[in-house]
Structures are given as structure tokens and as C-alpha cells.
Amino acid sequence: MFSRILIANRGEIALRIMRACKELGIQSVLVYSEADRDAAYLDLADQAICIGPARPSESYLKSDRIIAAAEVSGADAIHPGYGFLAENARFADQCRESKMEFIGPTAESMTMLGDKAKARQVARRARVPIVPGSNGPLEDDEEAATVADEIGYPVIVKAVSGGGGRGMRIVHDAEGLTKALSHARMEAEAAFNDASVYLEKYIEKPRHVEVQVLGDLQGNVVHLWERDCTVQRRHQKLVEESPSPAIGPETRRELCKAAVRLARVAKYSSAGTFEFLVDEKEHFYFIEANTRIQVEHPVTEMVTGLDLIKWQLRIAAGEAISFKQREVREQGAAIECRINAEDPEHGFRPCPGTIEHLRVPGGLGVRFDSHVYAGYTISPAYDSLIGKLIVHAATRDEAIDRMLRCLEEFAIAPIKTTVPLHRQILDHRLFRQGRIHTSFVEQLG
User: Which end of the chain is least crowded, N or C, by CB within 10 Å?
Assistant: First the structure.
């Protein structure tokens, strides 16, 4: 096992990784920007090193500074968390070239799965259904028009690189295709430095279901069941739960088997997620892979009892997965609400500022993953995530009731948050019934 790990991230995920390190007897080194200089979680690290100004491009995205900090601190591995450099294959190579382990998959697997067009090719080899679309990046608008005519409208234009809904446009007819392609390419270039896009058939009113996998360096792969991420706004997830309320036992088994086949073909090691759209007839289609730990990983931890961060560390250190697929049991139901510093009543406007009052819910089966506290200042330089509220109960109905109780208890001032929206979602009749799709939030009005 590693003796000292540098955590190349900030906020709640940095604290989450640091806690796992502490329990495994591993020292932790945190890097931070000048904007995060006063963050309380830095006091819990064995060492903290400033790597630059608030702007991510001058700090958390500066790979040379992060590696230099790791070398100075004597770290023997780097954990990227999620976001920033977590899915950057070049950074993974740089770490290993510098004689430090990158806690994640190989650069080859990341390259293979991080490019959505290449990931579709992997899916074909693994005999996993994919959404009909172009065979790779589009050469020009003429090819896009030909593909769209073949598969039929509506279609969706997607950036080959990245995620989070950027570089993505839905097109309902031929007249809107050229404009959508232009906007998607510009957005993709700005966000990912890669203007390549491809085309898929747009599946109307789908569920969004993803499968968590673990793979080790010995070639073992297991799935840890699925998470339902259908509740989202502009392709950004708001509520996640497991098990999915919308798929039957046979679909669940086949979906999870498909994810394992994908991981094996890609020779995947570490924690990773394979995402699918599921239509109203429970036909599923692979859409993309996330070659990192997910924001919503606590949902899986609550229903399986497995610590995904610890398993990332063990796998990177060369340990084999110590359990068989049949031993992975799913107990009860878990739900996670992402609480963001945003104002849902005014177009989800970001609400940075200082937290003057904070009351966090508790009780049986309740977990709050966060780095904030009364007196903490939320910076406009970073993602607006305040924390993740997770509950676990014996049944889905009990989990919903528990989450609603926790959302009532949760209090934060003076900043606006998404808590009122979460209450509205969880108390909605269609959510209770599991009869929603990915446009559900937009239709709430």
C-alpha cells in the first residue's frame, strides 16, 4: 500500500479521499489554490501546498505544479478525484513517468473510453447496444445531414470529448441542424479544446441509468449494481438513487452484465461508470463511460457497504479484488440530492457568498458529504456544489420519506440553494411512482 498520497482536488471530494487515506494509514497531501487558503479541511491533511491563484487553469488544472508538489512532498501516488484532471490521460501518463502512481485506470483505457466515438466502438466489440448514430466524429455538415436522414429526427449532436452536457444540442428537424452543429462545436472547443462532434438518434423520454464497476490489474471485473440518474437539468444530475425504480430484474441483470463486458474489453482497472439510456420498453443503449470516481458514488456505497475510494487505492497499489460477483449484495434503497449554491427560482443563478448559518440533518441512515461550515465562503471560481445529502432505508418509499425529512431539517443562510427544488421533486407524484424521464425537471415549471 502507498505511504503518502497527494490529492489533486478540492472541496468535498478532497475531504472524502483524505478520510479514506486516514483509515488505511496513508498520509495525505492536499494542494490548494489561493481562493481555498482558509478552507478548514486543509488542517486535517498531513501537508498542504499552495499551487496557484483561484483560476483553475492556474492551479487545479496545472499538471506541472501538481506533480512538482507531489515530488516535493514525497508522495508516491496522486488521486485526481473527479473533475479537473481526473479524466486527463496525459496527466495519468505524466504521473507515472514521474514515478508516481495515478489512482485511476491506465491512460490507454481512459483514451479508449473518454472519447465517446471510440467508446461506441468498444461497445460494438463488447456486443453492447448503442444508440444509432455516426460511426465516429463528423467530417462536415453534409455527413451530419446524411446520417440524420438515415436514422431519423430528432437527433442529438454531442461533443466527442468531455461531458456535463457541454457541446450537446438536440435537433428536431433538418432546418436546425447546421446551427446546432456550429454551436456544439464552438462550445466543445471552448470547454474541451476539441471541436469534434458526432451524431446520435435522440431517444425521447428515456431513463438515465448507470452501472458502477470495479476492475483490478489482474483482469478481474465486478459490477456494483446500478444507479438511476434520471433527475437532471440540462444534463446535470440533481438526484441519484439505487436501485432504479424503472427497470425489472431481467433488465437489471443484462444491463450490469453489459457494463462488465465493456470494462473487460477496455481492460479497465479502478472504479468506473458506464452510462445507458433506457427507453419505455426497457431497451437499453450505452452512451458513455466515466473513467473516474463519480460525484454520486456514495449511493452505491450505501446499498453495497463497499468503500469505493478505498478500493481505488487498493487496486492502484496492485491488490486484487477480494470478493466475487455473487458476494455483492444490494441492501435497501439509497437516494442522493446534490445541494448546490444556486437559485432555482431565478434560472439556477449561482449564489456564491459566506455561509452565516448552517444546520445539517442527521439520524439513522443519513450521510452528508461536504466541506462547508458556518463561516465558509463559497467562491464564484468553482463549481457551486455545497454538499451531497444521502439517505439509506429498507425500501424506496422509506428512503424518500427520510430524504424529505432531512431536506426539511437542512437550513443554510443567507445563500440560496437547490433544497426547495429537491423537496418539490421528491414529493412529486410521478417521482414517487418512478414514472419520470430526463426532461422531468424542465416540465415542473
Answer: C
Residues marked active site are found at 292
Mean pLDDT rounded to a whole number for the chain: 96
The rounded distance, in Å, linking the Cα atoms of 233 and 256 is 25
Cα torsion 365, 302, 4, 15: sign:
negative
Sheet with 4-7: strands ordered across: 47-52, 27-33, 4-7, 77-79, 101-102
- Chain-centre distance for alpha carbon 26: 25
Residue 253 has pLDDT above 70, yes or no: yes
Give the C-alpha distances (Å, rounded to integers) separating 270 from 13, 306, 317, 349, 365: 17, 14, 10, 35, 27
Angstrom distance (rounded) from CA 58 to CA 233: 29
Q: Cα(103)–Cα(316) distance, rounded to whole angstroms?
A: 5
Beta-bridged to residue 169, according to DSSP, are 157
Residue 445: is its pLDDT beyond 80? Answer: no
**What residues contact 103, with CB distance under 8 A and at least 6 apart?**
5, 77, 78, 79, 80, 270, 312, 313, 316
Quickly list DSSP for 160-215.
SS--TTTTEEEE-SGGGHHHHHHHHHHHHHHHHS---EEEEE--SS-EEEEEEEEE
pLDDT of 165 higher than 90: no
Between CA 365 and CA 378 the distance in angstroms is 27
Rounded CA separation 265/272 (Å): 14
Domains (ranges, CATH) in the chain? Answer: 4-86 (3.40.50.20), 132-201 (3.30.1490.20), 207-444 (3.30.470.20)
Q: Could you give the percent of the chain with pLDDT greater than 90?
A: 93
CA distance 31 to 137: 36
pLDDT of residue 424: 97
